[in-house]
Amino acid sequence: MFVLNPNYIPKKEGFYYSCEWIEHGLVFFPSKISMCCFMGVKEGIQTIIQDNFYGDNFKVDRIFEVRNKFRAFHKKGKIHINCMNCPSLKSDAWDERNYINSLYISHWSNCNSKCIYCYSAQHPEEFKNDNYHLIDIIKNLTKNGILRRSSKIMFGGGEPALLDEFEEIINFLLDNGFQNIRVHSSGIKYIPCIEKGLREGKIHITISVDSGCSETYKKIKNIDCYDVVRANIKRYAQCKTFSGFANVSAKYIIIPPLNDNIEELEKWLIANKEDNLSYTILDIEENWFNLNKNNIPQHIYDLLSYVKNRSRELKTNFELYERINNLKSI
Ligand code: SF4
Ligand code: SF4
Question: Ligand 1 atom closest to Cα of 47?
Answer without folding.
Answer: 5
